[in-house]
Design brief:
The complex is a heterodimer of chains A (445) and B (493).
Chain A: H1 2-7, H2 25-63, E1 68-77, H3 80-88, H4 92-110, H5 119-126, H6 130-139, E2 147-153, H7 156-163, H8 179-190, E3 194-198, H9 200-204, H10 219-250, H11 255-267, H12 272-286, H13 294-319, H14 322-330, H15 335-363, H16 367-371, H17 386-391, H18 397-405, H19 411-441
Antiparallel strand pairs in A: 1-2, 1-3
Helix pairs in contact in A: 2-19, 3-4, 4-6, 10-13, 10-15, 10-18, 12-13, 13-15, 14-15, 15-19, 18-19
Chain B: H1 3-28, H2 40-77, H3 89-108, H4 114-118, H5 124-133, H6 144-182, H7 189-229, H8 232-237, E1 241-242, E2 253-254, H9 257-288, H10 291-306, H11 309-328, H12 345-369, H13 373-381, H14 386-415, H15 418-423, H16 441-449, H17 458-492
The chains are: A mainly alpha (445), B mainly alpha (493).
Amino acid sequence: MSAASVDAPLDPPPRPKSSLLAPSDRTRRRRAAERRFRACGVAAISVGVLFLAVLAAAIIRSGAPAFTRTVVDVTITLSREQFERAEGQLLKTAAYEAVLIGALQEMLEEREERAPFDAASLRRILGKTGGSLREFFRANEDRIGRPVEFTLPASSRVDGYMNGRVSRDSLTDSRFLKAADLDLVDALAGAGIIHSEFNWPFITGADSGVDNPGGAGIGAAVVGSFFMMLVVLALSLPIGVAASIYLEEFAPRNWFTDLIEVNISNLAAVPSIVFGILGLAVFIQFFHLPQSAPLVGGLVLTLMTLPTIIISTRASLKAVPPSIRDAALALGASKTQAVFHHVLPLAMPGILTGTIIGLAQALGETAPLLLIGMVGFVARGYPDGFVAGFTDPNSAMPAQIYTWASRADPGFYEKAWGGIIVLLIFLLSMNIVAIVLRRVFERRW
Amino acid sequence: MPTIWLILIVLAVAAAGYAAGRGRALRGVGGEGRSLHSTPAYHGANVAMKSAGPALLLLAVWLAAQPVYVNGIVSAMIPDSAVRDGTSLELTLAEVRRTARGLDLAVEKGLMDEEFARDAGVDPADMTARLRDSGAVVTSAVTAPVLEAARKFRALDAAGGRFMAAAVVAAAVLGALWGIGQARKGFRARNVVERGIEAALIAAASIAILTTLGIVLSLLFNTVEFFGLYPAHEFFFGTSWAPSFSGRGGSSELGVPPLLWGTLYISLVALLVAVPIGLFSAIYLSEYAGSGVRSVAKPMLEVLAGIPTIVYGLFALLTVGPLLVDVFGEGGLLGVSWQGGGRSVMTAGLVMGVMLIPFVSSLSDDIIRAVPRAMRDGSYGLGATRSETIKRVVLPAALPGIVGAVLLAASRAIGETMIVVLGAGAAARLSLNPFEAMTTVTAKIVSQLTGDSDFASPEALVAFALGMTLFVITLALNVFALYIVRNYREQYE
């Protein structure tokens, strides 16, 4: 050892000078790489959050106008002679429109404003109002001769003008609206006759035809979704809990149990559209259940939600410590009694949370509903009764949104965004309930 | 009698049986409940189970089987000549059902009496007029064979309903009597009831198998029928997708490759967005972020997963599409005119990528956290920085799991429907330009099966073949991915 060091050359090769106090190039490079890597991570999360923000902004900005509507408040006093004269004419609705124009002009003159009104411009602003006026007075003949206050919805393009969606510059004269009509609208707005209000008919109403975006509402679709969710809840909760209890507490380890397990984990990943094909082929073609019915939609969504519910229920059953079961068995309970009297109640909050989240998932699902005929069909009204609610054709919220989005008139896009806000409010409240349930009842063993 | 009443009757019989069984068991031991093997409630439950169980099962089977049976008989009655040109037996059957329902409605409204509805000698034209008056939807003049079939349908349906009610109530009563007869001192009611409960649990668990079976069978039968009408090699290798709904058969080209190409291209774009963002998010959240950042950022990313796909679809159609046209379209910001319309591969792919971010990030997060602490400590001990540890130690160890996560995301992307229906377009194309509109397997399933198409035509049946293709691809991806993930988990447990 010592001989070797003596033989070594006297001048060792010069070692690179480095100090612990000053970082070397290499260290600096490594630190820069570290910073870059970290920045990538921050950037990735920021991009994700940014997307969320953009999505939320797009939804709120485009959907908010659906919740207001533009109306014209007008008080009409129809005298008996006017009524009889109008009924005697050939063009009865035109006569009523003339009365309406007279009333509007009177109101404008009271405020010392003046605007050229004719029946055509009125029709472009308010749509065909004569028919509804006639209907009202024919049904309520006792109101003739007394002032009646009407709130008439303006056409969707006037609505767009009031919201700023349609501007004076972008408007080209068409049979729907002319630039001259906008002067009229401005005059009415200046007099306070035309104004915006909360759009209750959108929340409570049913879908309108393809030519009337202004009158479309999501109420009937909410009812359809509600009946569908009743079916899903009534079937998937008991079946899901029963299946989970069997797999978690009773099932022996054999090929049959393995088969069930493999099936459940695969069904959880099968594309939702395939469940739609299943519903079409089995429930509609084979069993001849009615098309577009919430019952069929509910059955399909049940099959789709079951794996989710089973997976979360099994997790909550597994979280109940075995000592609970052992204690029950030691006191002489049978296995069934131990599970149903002790384990299940303790697992219930977790099961309910999982069920609500599964329901929320089912509520927003669209693709299977397209195949069982919930689109291409106008849900014009509410179901007649409780049983009819399950079997009569109806729409559901996501299907209604899709229907609106695929219509040619861009006036429906606003409705689609508004529908999405309603849908998201439902989903949000369900998820909040689930989170609160979990917080309140969560138990740590 | 409506089914709901039948169910209520069965439940009432079961409830009465419960009381009777409980009472009989107690009386048998002179009110001394302790000398029974099981508590009196179990004797009652035994009766209720034996009464309601078989009766409700019979009801369900009958309700499922009767329409199939009645349709079989009625469709045998319809001669080929009664099937209008351009329609199929299936559509004629639907007309028969509509007519039968119209007859019910008319009788209900008092427009005709039961005798008239059943009378075979009535002139079909007269009947059509009366059906119209009743408000039933009658498409055109009701023909004699259809009316004949509708009468038979009503008769069979009514008779079936009566038999069903009788059989179900009889089953309930007999079951109750059997159970009451058993309620004796030595009878082990609890064991019997518990065996019944276990059978019900097994039945519930088997629904998963039945669902898979239903999916496979419904796809398989219709696919086989499709390949009987359309040559299989043209479906798999034909490079053109041009279904015709106007003419009857012959002129459609139904090749799947353009659709598969669109599907894979859009999924690729989606994964190119989702995998880097998702993976880096997962790395940052699991390795760098403090608990404060984590508790805020993780739920926010997961919100993206909870948003329904219809929302993403609308976002693609109305926000992202026009935005891309503004940038890449004619007269856009970049001055290139690559993109013609709002719907394109990029539109759908970008939005789908956003949807998949939380999917990739939460799965990868779990997997990265499962890498044992000791491996990181060893790397730090040798002087590696955090990023070097992650790149050289943690990621290689987690790689199989991450690959599994990416495969699961790919399967999700391939099966996604609403985003592509709204954002990708309807034209099937074999093109490399990502700014062009293309279509996918799922979008075509929707377009072939919605609308009033005839289910026996190859244009409608092709949707089942497409569904089968989709099912097989996603199933293979899922099984492979789950296999990888499971193997990986076992490695470190």
